Amino acid sequence: MPDPIDILLEGCRRGNPAAQRALYERLSYQLMGVCLRYCPSRAEAEDALQLTFVKVFTRLDQFRGQGPFEAWARRIAVTTSLNLWHQHQQRGPHTEYEEAADLHHPDGTPFDQLSAEDVVRLMSQLPPGYRTVLNLYAIEGYSHAEIGELLGISENTSKSQLSRARRLLEERLLLQAHTPHYND
User: Where does the record place the RNA polymerase sigma factor 70 region 4 type domain (predicted)?
Assistant: First the structure.
């Protein structure tokens, strides 16, 4: 029995709108998460998601089935988001993020009670270069050589950026842990 994704892909290759919609609904949540990790704003992440699907639909003939389709689509989302990030950087200075001290944490031991949302929020406050390398290495599983190629930096710069990202994230976690927050 054929895999349901293969049936959807065949429908998409034929230009079937119902198959395209079903594929979008199946992957959009996951791919939006990827785009949000690399884009500086939700609006740009939404743009990246739409461009990702345009590329997926127009390049289906390039998918050779050498691995899961979802991984292929995810790589397109990463590349598309990185391209938008580069364009954003070229437009001028990026928007500064709030400091970690402005974040609220629940009572108790903050490290034990950090939610995924808290971690994502703290990561989003890292400088864009650090955040991008951290995401590519720790979440997407790229090697430093691959990151260097994707971002146009050396392998050693990638390693350095990852080290600095981890150190800064640790400092912000400690800052959050030691900053008292009072109920208004």
Answer: 118-169
Place of tokens 């912000």: 172
- Return the number of other C-beta atoms located less than 10 Å from residue 163's C-beta: 12
Alpha-carbon distances, residue 142 vs 6, 39, 162 (angstroms):
26, 18, 12
What is the residue-averaged pLDDT of the chain? 78
The answer to whether the pTM exceeds 0.70 is no
Give the Cβ contact number of residue 101 at 10 Å.
11
Taking residues 59-64, what's their average pLDDT?
Answer: 90
Nearest Cα residue to 79 out of 162, 130, 152: 152
Q: What is the DSSP string of 6-39?
A: HHHHHHHHTT-HHHHHHHHHHHHHHHHHHHHHHS
Please give the CATH architecture assigned to the domain spanning 4-91.
Orthogonal Bundle (1.10)
CATH code that applies to domain 100-178? 1.10.10.10
Which of residues 183 and 32 earns the better pLDDT score?
Answer: 32
Classify 30 as helix, strand or coil: helix
d(CA 81, CA 37): 9
- The dihedral region occupied by 41, where left means phi > 0, alpha psi between -120 and 50, and beta the remainder, is beta
Cα–Cα distances (Å) from 111 to 11, 25, 31, 172, in that order, read 47, 35, 28, 12
Taking the C-alpha atoms of residue 66 and residue 33, their distance in angstroms, rounded to an integer, is: 24
